[in-house]
């Protein structure tokens, strides 16, 4: 089990005793720890420091800590087992999150719904149809072959490898496996590398389908909390050392959902922790080519020791999710092993779509020179609309990617997801991005829709928030009394 020391917890809690009126110290302390759990900054199933140790670190009496832990236990935010101390937990009713599946295009009454649960832009229409025409012209050359390409079409592997090389990561076509998207790529890696029960280190929050894929592989996600403005390098290093994960999965480039971009120093520090422990690392670069400020970052694989980096990428966000084409870049020997696994799953990606993506990657810079300014404008529209509609929310402006990670200031995410459906909007609640219900104060909002639609959505979100703000949903009776 993971653990957190008294001093580290005291640091995370920060100024817990300020500005809290006359409420007793143990309630304020319990409230501060509960907020860390709800925000995902204190992962679930982490052993809390002993009472004496925390009392010393916070310079309070041991009775205060004992009473705070008791309160956390009775409200479901901590649990104790004989002999293993007190660990962080969540009340059972916090885990269920969304009113409807994000994959359903209709509201509860069957009406159309505005989908803000997915973060994927529309296709670049003209470039896409031109690429399909070019691909159709090339198709006759493919027809005499059997059409199965376990590794991917050679011309597509070549353009993907060339793009990595141009970004500073020398790559041969033999190091590329074409997949049906990045999600498929990650699932293939999990199938090959992990056994049931293995630990997989993840950023926390992270991309929800990655968490689901880890669980489907019967592996165990090990969440490492992200800070407001970057990676918590101490926590990252400690998690790698303490849990010896079989695999790490990181999204250092315009991270989904926080939008964070790992700095050179952060990349170096994470790589050195992973390198020391010889941890195979999946770097998910799905969003890397969407900088809205500055340049495309250097591939994180350039910082990792050779043989440890498995980079996955996709055409879904730069081009279109409907293409279902992605890739894995790794050492050639690993690519061959992954291809062998793939044979038992789906054998090959469709030839025509691979030809299309090869065409599109050749003109990707032109496509992005239109796409990025448009995304920049949409980001500003959504930020401005939210500033007006929900002025108390805290929302960072991400340097790239597709989403805003909004802090509503109160743990209302699940209620907001349900309320927004009544206003015709489907949202992705914060808990979708964490393990077991953390991030209840957060919502992820994509700026992938046209500006006028985003204005409309922002206004509806403001109305939904007022509606639930006016009548806060009943929490458990005790919680309301204690944490109001
Ligand atoms: C970080 C990340 N990885 C992977 C994916 C899935 O990509 P694909 O459509 O290529 O499967 C997404 C889609 O949102 C994503 O944000």
Report a brief summary of the structure.
Keywords: Aminotransferase, DNA-binding, Pyridoxal phosphate, Transcription, Transcription regulation, Transferase. With about 475 residues, the chain is α/β, with parallel strands linked by helices.
Key features of this structure:
484 residues, alpha/beta, Arc Repressor Mutant, subunit A, Aspartate Aminotransferase, domain 1, Aspartate Aminotransferase, domain 2, eight-stranded mixed β-sheet, five-stranded mixed β-sheet, 43% helix, disordered C terminus, binds pyridoxal-5'-phosphate
Q: What's the overall average pLDDT, rounded?
A: 90
Strand arrangement within the widest β-sheet reads 6-13-12-11-10-7-8-9
Which radius of gyration do the C-alpha atoms yield?
23 Å
- Poorly predicted residue ranges: 94-106, 470-484
Helix content: 40-55%
Any idea of the CATH topology of the largest domain? Aspartate Aminotransferase, domain 2
- Biggest sheet descriptor: 8 strands, mixed
Q: What ligands are attached or bound here?
A: pyridoxal-5'-phosphate
Termini separation (Å)? Answer: 32 Å
The CATH homologous superfamily of the largest domain corresponds to Type I PLP-dependent aspartate aminotransferase-like (Major domain)
- Structure summary, number of beta strands: 17
Question: Could you say what the CATH architecture of the largest domain is?
Answer: 3-Layer(aba) Sandwich
The CATH class designation of the largest domain is Alpha Beta
Give the amount of beta strand, in percent: 5-15%
| Structural class category | alpha/beta
Describe the global form: globular
Number of helices: 16
Structural domains: how many: 3
Protein name: Aminotransferase class I/II-fold pyridoxal phosphate-dependent enzyme
Keywords: Aminotransferase, DNA-binding, Pyridoxal phosphate, Transcription, Transcription regulation, Transferase
Organism: Phytoactinopolyspora mesophila
Pfam families: Aminotran_1_2 (PF00155), GntR (PF00392)
């Amino acid at each position: 089990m993971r653990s957190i020391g008294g001093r580290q917890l005291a640091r995370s809690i920060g100024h817990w005793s300020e500005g809290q009126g006359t409420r007793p110290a143990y309630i304020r302390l319990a409230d501060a720890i509960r907020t860390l759990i709800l925000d995902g900054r204190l992962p679930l199933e982490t052993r809390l420091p002993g009472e004496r140790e925390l009392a010393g670190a916070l310079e309070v009496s041991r009775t205060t800590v004992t009473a705070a832990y008791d309160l956390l236990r009775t409200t479901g935010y901590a649990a104790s087992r004989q002999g293993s101390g007190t660990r962080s937990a969540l009340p059972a009713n916090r885990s269920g999150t969304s009113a409807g599946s994000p994959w359903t295009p209709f509201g509860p009454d069957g009406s159309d719904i505005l989908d803000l649960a997915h973060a994927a832009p529309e296709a670049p229409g003209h470039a896409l149809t031109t690429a399909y025409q070019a691909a159709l012209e090339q198709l006759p050359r493919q027809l005499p072959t059997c059409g199965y390409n376990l590794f991917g079409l050679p011309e597509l592997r070549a353009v993907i490898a060339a793009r990595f090389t141009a970004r500073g990561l020398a790559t041969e076509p033999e190091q590329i496996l074409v997949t049906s998207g990045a999600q498929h790529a990650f699932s293939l890696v999990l199938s090959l590398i992990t056994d049931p029960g293995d630990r997989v280190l993840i950023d926390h929050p992270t991309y929800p389908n990655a968490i689901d894929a880890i669980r489907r592989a019967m592996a165990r996600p090990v969440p490492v909390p992200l800070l407001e403005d970057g990676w918590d390098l101490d926590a990252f290093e400690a998690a790698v050392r303490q849990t010896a994960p079989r695999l790490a999965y990181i999204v250092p480039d315009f991270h989904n959902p926080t939008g964070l971009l790992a700095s050179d120093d952060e990349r170096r520090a994470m790589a050195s922790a992973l390198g020391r422990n010889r941890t195979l690392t999946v770097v998910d670069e799905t969003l890397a080519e969407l900088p809205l400020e500055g340049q495309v970052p250097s591939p994180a694989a350039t910082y990792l020791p050779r043989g440890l980096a498995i980079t996955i990428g996709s055409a879904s966000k730069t081009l279109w999710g409907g293409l279902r084409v992605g890739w894995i870049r790794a050492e050639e020997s690993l690519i061959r092993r992954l291809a062998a696994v793939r044979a038992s799953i789906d054998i090959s990606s469709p030839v025509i779509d691979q030809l299309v993506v090869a065409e599109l990657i050749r003109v990707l810079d032109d496509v992005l020179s239109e796409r990025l300014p448009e995304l920049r404008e949409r980001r500003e529209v959504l930020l401005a609309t939210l500033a007006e509609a929900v002025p108390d929310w805290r929302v960072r402006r991400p340097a790239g990617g597709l989403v805003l990670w909004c802090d509503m200031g109160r743990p209302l995410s699940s209620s907001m997801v349900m309320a927004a459906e009544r206003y015709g909007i489907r949202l992705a609640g914060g808990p979708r991005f964490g393990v077991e219900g953390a991030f209840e104060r957060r919502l992820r909002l994509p700026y992938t829709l046209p500006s006028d639609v985003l204005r409309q959505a922002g206004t509806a979100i403001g109305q939904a928030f007022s509606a639930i703000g006016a009548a806060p949903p009943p929490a458990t009776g005790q919680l309301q009394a204690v944490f109001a």
